[in-house]
Predict the structure.
Amino acid sequence: MKVSEIEMISPQTVEECLYHLGEKDKTSRFIAGGTDAVVRMKDGAWLPDTWINIKQLDSLRYIKEEENGIHIGPLTTHTDIVHSGLLQKKADVLTAASKEVGAVQLQNMGTIGGNIATASPAGDTIPTLFVLDAQIELTSLMEKRIVPINEFFVGPGRTVQAQEEMITNIIIRPQTENEIGIFEKLGPRKAQSISIVNVAISLKMGEKSRECLGGKIAFGSVAPTIVRSEKCERMLTINPLHDEAIQDIAGAAWKEVMPISDVRASAKYRRSMASALLERGLYRLMKRWDER
Amino acid sequence: MKDIHFKVNGKNVSVNCAPTKTLLDVLRDEFDLTGSKECCGKGECGSCTVLLDGVSVCSCLVLIGQIHDVSVITVEGIGLTSNMDVVQQAFVDEGATQCGYCTPGLIVSSRSFLDGINHVPTDDEVKTALGGNLCRCTGYTKIMKAVQTAARKQLTMEETTN
């Protein structure tokens, strides 16, 4: 298959997309922002018979609050997320992560659904979806099912999404009044870089000084899929989050991650950076909480 | 092969080609708009930046089949020698170019950035806005200065017209 022989269809509805996905005699793939798909096509890794172009499918581009959580359409761009007042208020950790995806051009092009479906262990929005208990709605011609985010990823680039299924909604838990979040990322430079390690943190704070009632911590780029750091999460509530407690929690993080060595960094470096990023994130969160 | 209709720099155009051809290749090969450059081809350097319906994107990662009915603005649409935009004039005045390969992308990104703000940006704001445009010669100091000069000029022009 040559690039010039690949066909493209641009469905106007979800039903039409599902119909094309179900065609057995042809291979097909979705293309939205193209920030990953076009690179892989140029590399020769993704050469389907047909691109199903969904860039223009505005019915799947929305951010709205419903009874069971905040609904984000898979074709919502990172720029849409950064500019959403609702998410700034009730999902600050996602806003923070979306600001760190690539640079302006890629934030304008890339979509949250694409970030999820691509399933890169370094995908910047994915750890935040773990701390916000995201649920992914998958739709096929036969059925609709909801998959919790912690069951969605199987390995690098692999998910439970079947060939005939499409991501049609992402539901996240809105943060409560006393909840604050942060996203920390280590990359080779500030803009436009792939994460060496990243971490999303969201904490529920109590009445007393730096009292933490509970929280969630998720690391990216340190294992085949995202790692929820349950040991560190349990330590959050032991003592108020003053400097010593923060150092103890961060000190436990390196045992929670299982990184590999690759072109971007060694496993050893990633382990120590996981601790460092968690420590930095907790300091910054507590500073923000004190100054609120 | 497919017929694709869209707008380039305000003019309605159509092209008959494979839908998987990149917008960048179509602009350069079919319309001779060679301002937009291919450098990395992966969305990392910003040399190919154009505006799609007013939004900055890397044209090397947009397939032509995806932009039916969309309006494309390239660096040529922002200004030519005879009608230079304030951003372009500021780049000239501040000497913010060396080899020039990254300049068209920087002009488009800067234009798009200045369209969205109403003040003279700080160094940090310019750095964030232009983080997707790599320059391997200048060291960026003059580029940042040019963007700030353009912003200042634009604000004075707006004040006089109001």
User: Anything to note?
Assistant: The mean pLDDT of chain B is 96. The radius of gyration of chain B is 16 Å.
